[in-house]
Amino acid sequence: MFDQRLRLAMLLIVLVSINPVPVRGEETPPAASQPAASQPTASQPATSQPTASEPDADDSLIMDPEFKKQPSSRPRLVAVLPFLNTTDDPEADTIVRRSIYNHFSSMNYLDMELTAIDKKLKQNKLDDPKAIHAATPAQLAKILPVDAVIRGKIIQYQKTFAVIASQVSVGAELQLVRLRDGKVLWQYKHTAQSTDGSIPLSPIGAIAAIVSSAMNVRQTILFRMADEMGREMVQTIPDLPDTEVSKPPKITLFAHNGVDGPKKAGDVLQVILQGDPQKTGTFDIGSFKKNLPLHEESPGIYKGSFRIGQGDNLARAELTAYLKDTNGNTATWIDFLAPVTFDSTPPAPPQKLKTQSRDKQIHVSWHSSPDADVVAYQVYRSNQPLAGYTLLGKVERTEYQDHNLINDKKYYYRVQALDQAGNVGSQSDKIDGIPMTPGPTPVTKDISIETTWRQAASPYVVTQSIIIQADAILNIEPGTEIILSPHVGMTVKGQLVANGTTTQPITWRTKEASNQEPWLGMLFDHTKSNNQLSYATITGAQYGVVVNHAQLTAKQTTVSHNGIGFYLLESGSTQIISSLITQNHQGGIIVAGGSPSITDSEITVNKGGAGLLLKDGRPKLKNNLFQANQEFDVVIVNSGKDTFVIDENRWNTIQPEAIYDRIAGPRKIVSVIDSDTKRKVTLSKPNYPLASKEKSESDMEPLLPVAIRHFKNAEYPQAFALISQVLPKLLHPAALYTAGRLFAYMGEDQKALKTLKKAAELGAKEAGYHHYLALHLFNMGKQAEAISEWETVLQLEPNHPLAMTMLTLIRRPVLSSN
């Protein structure tokens, strides 16, 4: 195919060369003899492309008279500087600069290589185009060993679309500046336009239109117009006479087939150069390969190639062509069409294949290959695990739906990745799938081998308690539903892996009935493997999840409307992450021993006295939201006297007093997370001010109800200011109770204890005073004394809800670990 393109390219070159574009210089007369654009000839197609004659009316050409008329005054060595890009296209400056450089290189001037220029500028901290554009000739003369520079800016590089036609425009304002005196020898503002969006028919346009057929059309036309503009601008510069210098060979075009996309091992990069005949041609592939030969196939037509081998990997390398005569004079042409990429490394196989069973179908999915250049995947199927895999199809997404299968028959799948270069990766590990007859599916037996419950056979109806035995694994597909009869449970002694998704959670529930009795729940009992729950929902159980000396990771799991949500018994390796524990009737989470991790979860609206009950458990708590749990958010019942540290969790407030009232038991609250700002707020003990002036004893009695009202309204500084005046002169149990609560907030535990005891003594028949004394004793770790006080409360008020709740929580037996 490439040879055919080359033959066609050669034909076009010959056609164009019949009517060559004149090279403008001092000795070249104006192109008045050329046919006008409105009068096309047989060798000049009637297109809207700009001509190479005199500047258009919109162009501006200014030339120093001495530079124009006296060849001896012209500089010899010239550098083409980076241009200032004022367009929205980040590649415009690079494309136009290389075009100017390539065409200028064909003149008799000596030019400095672009890489050498850029290196010098960077060494002198002048690599920003804005700084280069602003640099004075004197500054540049100290950096670059040249006589003059071509500098300027790109003013246009775009393609616009109208109703009927499109317009491609590439424009620049350039100067040739002599460095020794700063004189502008040549200045030209020019825009090349094609009003119908056609590709110019210059030689490089003809070749590039063939070998870059895979390029974006807009990009191709812009490249062509950039080349036309560079050619026309350079042609207005007077050349040095041939006698002034040893003239290098001329290169007319250089193109390659590397613009079609990355090349893989075995592919051949082919290049073509047109220039002066009977010269020595070579080309470089970046710094990867140097001095690769170009062979003259016919006069002035040079061809070269490079076969990509295994292990040849190269990203966006520029091609440079050279043409040298017998005197060592060398012409250089930097390709600006597109850098080449070699990719001989096949992509890695896809990972984490999954199958989902459906009725006569299997849905296969996988994780994307880690290689960024993967463009497609091929899916294979077999009836046996090791051999016989045949191609099912090619897809661009990371999933495939296999249809028209036989239910209850096992199929095996492998997937391989394909990259942009055409490399085909190794096949993935196999995975099996079984299309299933739609559910419901009854479950009455224990699970003794690795088993998968599939969405297609859902719901699974469990009518008697089952055990996942020690050496067995139960995998549950996303979207699967499990319905359990009353008083029926699941015990895991092996391993449970139940990972749902956001859109396809896995659910456990009872049959839908208004008076339905609960199912027992899930028990993870002395398991050795890490059990997994994610995007799971567990409702309607007596115990939602019990973890007994086992390991469980529960992520994005909702445990609601159960008796108890989670019961963690000596399960320090268990993690509850980003889960919702809500509306459970006898408590949200109970931690009985061990140090499980509970993070980023919501423990809200649970009844039973506490959202989180610690029975000699010391969980790691972080960034959990406690809100609206009945009575208390956290209750700490530990046999030791150490306080439990609570740090970096969230409440619906950052007011210390409100948070202290939500936690019962010996604790220390270090900080909370502000739900609004997400910032950590350190909690410090409040320090309430005393009253500013004394009042008489007769004034005390009216102050007491005001102080109590302030306290009930959470206006604690005002309450303390008044109560501190009342107490010395009016020893009332309500005043003592209020003062005791305020002392507790301030961290004055002993003062609080003394004051609350006095309140209970004076109000001996009031259950409320004894309750808050008991609660303060409990918070100080004096559990036995607290129990005695709560027993007194129940003697005074047998149905006192707070006392009954606290005694129930303290005396609650821990589930047997057997």
Assess the beta-strand content as a share of residues: 25-35%
Strand order of the largest sheet: 24-26-29-32-35-38-41-44-47
Relative helix content: 10-25%
The CA-CA distance between the termini, in Å, is 77 Å
Structural class: alpha/beta
Element layout with pairings:
Layout lengths: L1 H16 L42 E4 L1 H5 L7 E4 L3 E2 L6 H14 L4 E2 L2 H10 L5 H6 L2 H7 L4 E14 L4 E13 L5 E11 L8 H9 L5 H19 L15 E6 L11 E8 L4 E6 L3 E10 L2 E7 L6 E4 L1 E6 L5 E5 L5 E3 L8 E8 L2 E7 L6 E9 L7 E6 L3 E4 L8 E9 L11 E3 L7 E3 L7 E3 L6 E3 L3 E3 L4 E4 L4 E4 L4 E4 L2 E5 L6 E5 L8 E7 L4 E5 L1 E4 L1 E8 L2 E5 L2 E3 L3 E6 L5 E3 L2 E3 L6 E4 L4 E3 L2 E3 L5 E6 L4 E3 L2 E3 L4 E6 L6 E6 L6 H5 L2 E2 L2 E7 L6 E3 L17 H13 L3 H11 L6 H13 L3 H14 L4 H13 L3 H14 L4 H11 L7
Helix pairs in contact: 1-7, 3-8, 10-11, 11-12, 12-13, 13-14, 14-15, 15-16
